[in-house]
Amino acid sequence: xxxxxxxxxxxxxxxxxxxxxxxxxxxxxxxxxxxxxxxxxxxxxxxxxxxxxxxxxxxxxxxxxxxxxxxxxxxxxxxxxxxxxxxxxxxxxxxxxxxxxxxxxxxxxxxxxxxxxxxxxxxxxxxxxxxxxxxxxxxxxxxxxxxxxxxxxxxxxxxxxxxxxxxxxxxxxxxxxxxxxxxxxxxxxxxxxxxxxxx
Length: 199
Hints:
Layout: E1 5-8, H1 14-24, E2 29-32, H2 35-40, E3 44-46, H3 52-61, H4 64-67, E4 75-78, H5 80-83, E5 86-89, E6 94-95, E7 100-106, E8 117-122, E9 124-125, E10 140-145, E11 147-149, E12 155-160, E13 164-171, E14 174-177, H6 185-197
Parallel strand pairs: 1-2, 1-3, 3-4, 4-14, 5-7
Antiparallel strand pairs: 5-6, 7-11, 8-10, 9-12, 12-13, 13-14
């Protein structure tokens, strides 16, 4: 295959910005919803926009709800794409891909803590992982989300928003980030560069 990354076509406006972010790192990418193309890709990015129910319906329509959990190459879910890796979401009471254990819940608004959580927040790593190499605790990333997972054994880093929420999760070849690396400046570029080195 003549690309470094296949971006799953989730119909979102951030597909182009993800492609540009990868291009700045010297990586070639292609947007596709074709199962054969995705299976053959050296790495896969799963972005997500809109609601969990609609996103899962798009994946089911393309047969990707069966394909993605069986991938053996590195896959990175971004924002809603990370939430879809879990078993279920409170948003639309939607079944997820079941790759990571747990359920995604709606954030609780409070004075000074609106929902959606929108803006810069810091990361607190829970342990070493190649995706987070050379990214220190306290590094800032850009978040936009109304739902989040509670920390568990697959949590690689948390962010604080009225308590810890999952910012990075992973198991085996699958990883997910709740923030937008393509909108997170140098720190986001570093994380994407780390992803490109995963094999």
